Structures are given as C-alpha cells and as structure tokens.
TrEMBL record:
One of its GO terms (biological process) is regulation of DNA-templated transcription. The modification 4-aspartylphosphate is found at D58. One of its GO terms (molecular function) is transcription cis-regulatory region binding. The keyword Phosphoprotein applies. Residues 5-123 form the Response regulatory domain. The keyword DNA-binding applies. Pfam families: Response_reg, Trans_reg_C. It comes from Insolitispirillum peregrinum. GO terms for cellular component: cytosol; protein-DNA complex. Residues 131-230 bind DNA. This is Two component transcriptional regulator, winged helix family. Residues 131-230 form the OmpR/PhoB-type domain. CDD domains: trans_reg_C (cd00383). Keywords: DNA-binding, Phosphoprotein, Two-component regulatory system.
Length: 230
C-alpha cells in the first residue's frame, strides 16, 4: 500500500499526539493532518486539492458532535472512509454514527495494531469503489470515470481502460512493479500479450500525463519495472 493521507479530528491533545507519533512510523501513512475541533476538521477537509484517504473522527468533540461533523463531511463531498473513535460502545451511538455516514466504529481505549488493521482494510476497500479519488502529481485521478483532471488548469485527460488500470495498480502498490507482474495484473496471463504491449501503453500514457514525456517525472522506469511517483 502506498503512503496515504489521514485526517485526524481529535480534541484530546495527548491521544492525538500519541496517534500521530505512532501512525507516522507506519510505512502506509504518508501524512497526518491534525484537527483539535470539528470546525478545524471541516476546514482541513475543504482546503486544498489533495483528497484524504481516510478520516479518524472523535465522537465527543468540544464544539460539534462527531456525527454532525461526519454528516457535514459527506455534504462537502468527502467520500473516503470515516472511522469514528468513541468512548461509548452503545448500540445507539453505533447506529446513529453509521447513519451519519461513518464506515466503522473503534471504541476507546484501543490497540494501535487493531486501529491500523481497520484503517488499511477500509482504504483497500475504498480504492476499489467508484468513489475513490487519488492525487497523482498535479492531477486528481478518478478511476471510475477513467479521467485525470489537472487542478491548475482544470484540463481533463481521458484515459483508456488499460491506462486506468495501470495507474490504479501502480498507485496502490506505491513501489516498483516489474513488467511481468504489471502485465499480468492489467491484461491477465494471456500468452498473446507481451511486455511490448505494456511498454506501448506506458509510452502513450506518458504522452498524456508527463510535462516532458522523454524525461518522465510521474511514471518512471526503475529496476526493470515501473513506479508511480504519486
């Protein structure tokens, strides 16, 4: 799993700092944006063009009910998974939280290993959904509609099904993928398809997304394979 962005909305300073410190040590987490209040969390979610991959949201915030924050996040267009952190394990709180748009509940106190397992599971599930939106360089990548949008110019780049699959797999892996593996993932193990087919698609993809296709900065060749610098 490539490094992901997490929005942490938690008013308990000690818990928030502890979570940031421990999650920052996880290879899967690339950036954690902190918000001590519901209002700050909503501001963070609405700022910038890079989408979050998951939101950790405390139920008992000082200014807003976490369920109201969750509803507002969904109203803002946030489609990534939301995991609510709560000191209450009552069925009523769980039901109302899920009805507000949360994907899961984790009851305090919790083990970091358990929380991270749920974080990874929800991110993986979300990446396969039609709601997934990824940041790749200057682009917003929406696999469901096979499109990249340049945030600066609002230019839309339409992709083929195979180009979409290549970007999606490289993004999910976050590391160098050798040609045979990528070929198998995108085309299946079809004897009629060679690595030349893959190289042709990569060439065409670079023509679409690279500022200088001859000197690729996003879809790079490394160690006998390809890596996406997302």
């Amino acid at each position: 799993m490539a490094a992901r962005r997490i929005l942490l909305i938690e008013d308990d300073d000690l818990l928030r700092r502890s979570l940031v410190e421990q999650m920052s040590m996880q290879d899967e987490i690339g950036e954690i944006v902190e918000a001590p209040t519901g209002a700050a969390g909503l501001d963070a979610a609405g700022a910038g063009s890079v989408p979050f991959d998951l939101v950790l949201l405390d139920l008992g915030l000082p200014d807003l009910d976490g369920r109201d924050v969750c509803r507002s996040l969904r109203a803002q267009g946030v489609r990534c998974p939301v995991i609510m952190l709560t000191a209450s394990d009552s069925d009523r709180d769980t039901i109302t939280g899920l009805e507000a748009g949360a994907n899961d509940y984790v009851t305090k106190p919790f083990r970091l290993a358990v929380l991270m397992a749920r974080v990874k599971a929800h991110i993986r599930q979300h990446e396969q959904s039609d709601d997934a939106v990824f940041a790749i360089g200057p682009y917003r990548f929406t696999p469901a509609v096979k499109m990249l949008i340049d945030e600066a110019s609002n230019r839309k780049i339409r992709l083929t099904e195979k180009e979409t699959a290549i970007l999606k797999y490289l993004y999910r892996m976050g590391t160098v993928v050798d040609r045979d593996t990528l070929l198998g993932e995108v085309w299946g193990y079809n004897a009629a398809v060679s690595t030349h087919t893959l190289e042709t698609h990569v060439y065409r993809l670079r023509q679409k997304i690279e500022a200088d296709p001859g000197n690729a900065a996003l879809l790079v060749t490394e160690s006998g394979g390809y890596r996406l610098r997302a």
